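User: Can you recover a sequence for this backbone? Please restate the input before giving your answer.

Assistant: Of course. Working from this structure:
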């Protein structure tokens, strides 16, 4: 049983998938940092110095100034600012994956084959289909000299 498991685990697809998951997790951390530390501060500044990470609705009605204060007090909150950051993370990751898959598909695409020259043509007299090299039409028996 151990031998079967080892063979399964060492298959190319499983190892490739594991590498992809590890790189994807690291990429997710980079995107999260980009959104929280680089992208959202200027957007918050443009929208009137809003810190998206600190946007929440206090369900207890106490009126906490920050999410940290509400968490310390054990108050229930809806953290929609953090949710917006997470949605933006997802959109950026999804767009990056889309671009990656698009490039992979472009590289995998095989060139279109050259068009095959026609093997037949029309008789100029009866408009029947005849072989390309015919010198006489098989339908109307007209001579096709110079055609």
């Amino acid at each position: 049983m151990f031998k079967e498991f080892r063979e399964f685990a060492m298959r190319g697809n499983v190892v490739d998938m594991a590498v992809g998951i590890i790189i994807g997790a690291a990429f997710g951390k980079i995107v999260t940092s980009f959104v929280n530390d680089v992208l959202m501060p200027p957007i918050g500044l443009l929208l009137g110095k809003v810190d998206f990470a600190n946007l929440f609705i206090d369900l207890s009605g106490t009126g906490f100034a920050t999410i940290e204060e509400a968490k310390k007090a054990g108050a229930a909150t809806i953290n929609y600012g953090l949710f917006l950051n997470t949605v933006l993370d997802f959109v950026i990751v999804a767009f990056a994956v889309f671009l990656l898959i698009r490039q992979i598909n472009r590289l995998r695409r095989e060139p279109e084959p050259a068009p095959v020259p026609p093997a037949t043509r029309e008789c100029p007299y009866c408009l029947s289909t005849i072989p390309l090299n015919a010198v006489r039409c098989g339908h109307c028996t007209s001579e096709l000299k110079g055609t």
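That completes the design. The two ends are 75 Å apart (CA to CA).
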